[in-house]
Amino acid sequence: MPQPHPAVGQAAPTTAAPAPAPALSLEERLAFITTAMTVRLDEAKVAYEVNTAHIDTAPVDLADVITVPLTPTLQPSPQSYPTPVAALLQRAHHRLLTDGWCKDLLVDEDGARCMLGAIRIESRGDRGLEASAAAVLLDAIRRTFGDVDSLPSFNDAHGSARVPLRMVDQAAGLADSRGL
């Protein structure tokens, strides 16, 4: 038997439209966005680790990264070490901070000095004390950087004062620990 067709003006029964979802609060929306961003950042972190796993990198010395403004002329000179070589290296470090650092010369036209130039001026003509300070400084440099030919070659290999200044300061502590 044939199925009856609905009348032309009659609508077929439909289900009720779903009720609209209640609007999310700002906190709920932020929570959803935070979750989505966390997932994306975790995926990016994994992708970065996979893409860079083959690259051999050297560890970063934080002393090269973290810098503070140098205002040595506004600060008093630090308390001097009790041993002569350590005190000389400390004075040389302070001289480099206040007068400036240079490379390729003992002293440039502005009065800035290289590491050896600062040691020489602060030794006040005592060549034995100067030689001892230079030896301790070279030893401190070799402990950190391996085989280094000389103080002038190390000094001239750097484009800024940060590493040479740090090494003079570390050498002062080394000399003090050795009682020199």
Which structural traits does this protein have?
180 residues; mainly alpha; 2 domains; 54% helix; rod-shaped
Write the layout of secondary structure elements.
Elements: H1 26-52, H2 62-65, H3 84-99, H4 115-122, H5 127-145, H6 151-156, H7 162-178
Helix pairs in contact: 3-4, 3-5, 3-7, 4-5, 5-7
Quick synopsis:
The chain has about 180 residues and is mainly alpha-helical. The chain is built from seven helices and no strands.
Question: How is this structure best described in words?
Answer:
- This protein has 180 residues and is mainly alpha-helical.
- It has two domains: 25-57; 62-178, no CATH class.
- It has seven helices and no strands.
- Helix 3 runs antiparallel to helix 7.
- The longest helix is centred in the N-terminal third of the chain and has 27 residues, at 26-52.
- The radius of gyration is 35 Å and the shape is rod-shaped.
- The model has no long low-confidence stretch (mean pLDDT 82).
What's the structural domain tally? 2
Distance between the termini: 117 Å
Note the run of SSEs as H and E.
HHHHHHH
Residue stretches low in confidence (pLDDT < 50, at least 5 long) are none
From the spread of the alpha carbons, the general shape counts as rod-shaped
- Sheet-strand content, in percent, reads under 5%
Strand tally:
0
Total helical elements: 7
Structural class: mainly alpha
Largest sheet: none
Helicity range: 40-55%
Q: What Rg do the Cα atoms give?
A: 35 Å
- Mean pLDDT, all residues: 82
